[in-house]
Structures are given as C-alpha cells and as structure tokens.
Amino acid sequence: MKNKERAITVRAARQLALAAALACACAARAEIGVAFPAERQRLPAVEETYVIGATAPGRTEFLYVNGVTTDVYRTGAFLAMVPVKPGTNTLTVFQGKDKLVRTFVVAEAPAQAAKKPDPIESDDDPRIGKQSAWQTTGTLFTNRVRAEIDDGDTIFYLPKGFVLRGAEVKDTQWLAVWLEGRRGYLSRNLARRCPDRQVPSKMTPAPDPAIGFPDKPPYGRRPETVRICVDPGHGGSDTGALSPHGWFEKDVNLMQARAIRAALEKAGFQVVMTRDDDSFPALYDRPKKAYDGRMDAFISVHHNATAANRNPRIARHTTAYASTSNGLALAQCIQRHIAPTLAPVKDAGAQMRSFAVCRNPAVPSCLLEVDFINLPEGEAESWDQARQAKVATAVVMGVLDWMSPPEKAEGGDNTK
Ligand SMILES: [Zn+2]
Fold this sequence. Notes:
Order of helices and strands: HEEEEEEEEEEEEEEEEHEHEHEHEEHH
Strand content: 25-35%
Number of helices: 7
Bound molecules: zinc ion
Oligomer: single chain
Structural class: alpha+beta
Largest sheet: 6 strands, mixed
CATH class of the largest domain: Alpha Beta
Radius of gyration: 27 Å
Number of domains: 3
Strand order of the largest sheet: 17-16-18-21-19-20
Shape: flat
CATH architecture of the largest domain: 3-Layer(aba) Sandwich
CATH superfamily of the largest domain: Zn-dependent exopeptidases
Helix content: 10-25%
C-alpha cells in the first residue's frame, strides 16, 4: 500500500516537474506581450492605432512593430503607432528570436449619426402627449431634469418618489415635465405614470437637494472637523484603462487613492473611501455616499488613456474635472498643486465636464485624471509609490487652499 502510494506520488511529482519545465519554456519564448490591441479586438473606424506592450527589460536587440523599430523603455514597455485599414489587420512584433503575431479588426467607416429632433418650442407642441401625474423611480443622482431632449444641462434633481406633472414626448424616450413654471425633460425609464393621482401644477416647486448643506467651502475649519470622500475610480470587472504591461487603471486608482487617504489623515482630515478593495460600487452609489454622509468634499481618482487613434505620448496631460461651480473651485485648488508635481506632464488645468460622480448637487466634487497610463513613461510613473505620495501631498495642499477664507476685497465695506 505504502509503495503504491509512493509510486503515485513520484509519478505525480514527475508530471508536475514536466509541466513546470514546459511552462518555463513557454514563458521564455513568450517574452513579448501586447496589451493593446488584444487578439481579435474590434476597433472603431480609425486610420491608425497605438500598440502598447512589454518585453523583458534590459534586452539589447531592436524591437520591431510591423517592421518599424520601436523604442523600449527601461521597464520593457513600448508604444508604437501603426496605420490600419478597415477589416482584419495583422500585427507582428519581433525582438531577436521572439515573435508575436496577432490579428484585430477595424470597423468600416461609421454610419451617419442620427439627426436630432427639432427642439420643442412650446407646451402646445403636438409631440407632447397627454399631461398626467408621474412619480420618479430613480435616485436623486439619476432623476435629472434636463433643459433639452438628449443631453441638455441638468436643471433639477428629483428625489425618489417625487410626483410631478409630465407627458410622454412622441418618438422619444423622454418625458416633458413641469416644475416652477419651467419645462424640462426626464428620461422615460426614471418615472411611472400615476393615473389615479391629481395632476400636479406646472408651478410645483422643485425640491432643493442642497438644503442642510453648507453653501461655502469649510472656510477656516480645522481639518479634524472636515470629512472627505475619496473615490478610487472603476473596480471589479470594470477595469478602466490598460497600461503597456496589461495593468489596470482600477488598481493604480486604488493605490493612488490610498496614498491620498493617508496624506489627508496625516493632516487631520476624516476620510471615507467609496471602495478599499477590488469591488465595484455602482456609479451613482459613489456620489450618494458623499451626499448621504453629508461630506464636505468628494474626490474621484482616475488615470487616463487615449482613444485608439491618438498617440498618448502627444496627448499626455494632467487635469481635474468638475461638473458644478462649487466642484470647480475645489478642482482648481487641487490642480494648482498637482500640475507642478507632475511637470513636465502638460497641465490642462481644471475643466468643466459632465461626469456622473461629479454632478453632486450638494457636495463639492471633482475627478482627477492624474496621468495617462497607456504610454511607458506614464505607466512607470503612475505606479511609482514615491510619485503617488507627491500627488497625495499636492491634493492635501489643494484642499487646504480651498478651505482658506478668501482675502477681504480692497475698498469693500469693511471699515465699519
Ligand atoms: Zn477612469
């Protein structure tokens, strides 16, 4: 019995050793990796694409991407731009005896974009259906009333269960709704018709989602009393952007966010994270956490990548986005400190753009695109813990600036 067991064990060990040897041989041969485009990946209708990948660092042979010599960064990462044509394309990467071949598909030229419907000029427009009572079913962060059909500015935020006057707009997925005498548009799938309810007036007051929140930054308050929500972007199956080594944005976002938390806490702030592992909090649960927790600020941490046909070495920049004016003040203060930390990475300043996590109507919110990770230098620097600590310090300095009371205006009414 014992001998038989030993024989099985020995055979198993031999098999394992053989498998390990094969794995090693394979690993040695597959030294070139290409992160993008992936095998059989479908790209939009582009005329060129970037190719990013990595080989073993320190190799001295030239690396060729579709026949063109390509610089290899000290980490082994490389970036090349290659022309492509519609249909199936072949990519060939050579270095010494190593060769990698893959195919990917580029779409034909895109179809013409659908024409937008003409704007509705009056409440009597024949496209507006019968007016009745509607009740919202989404959350405060999804129930956004827009100024126009398809992507207008947000004019009102509605809590779940709010009842207002509405009417379906023919041939669209939108409801016309009326609040405070103004017509706006709510996505049809965020409300249900209430046929038995009295139809609310067009003058129904809009709820104010910022009631109970301070209308100014926490001027002059001690950090110990200030609560900041830090949001590492993406997570779980939502990996975000991809780097030459095939590393995910979600992971570097978490590393950078943890560094920011550490620096903020060292400065005395209270910090809450939307995630502290590889989970994916739903997009609108992130601003909701800051809103429900009556936080003083919300900072979302991301890293950028270019579209397939843009060279990330040329596009590389650092920026902070906001979607509200109070968020923009925060974004500007933080960006002023991050930009010099990352120089010579181009400073694109703070910018307004509509992002789900930044549209918080009550908590000043911003989204940092710290750097581009789809180029070798951006990858190496973004994953560098010393750089992450510098960015974290810059964020703290920015938040402190944002909290410092504005100087009294000269010649103002301050002589009394
Ligand atoms: Zn991102």
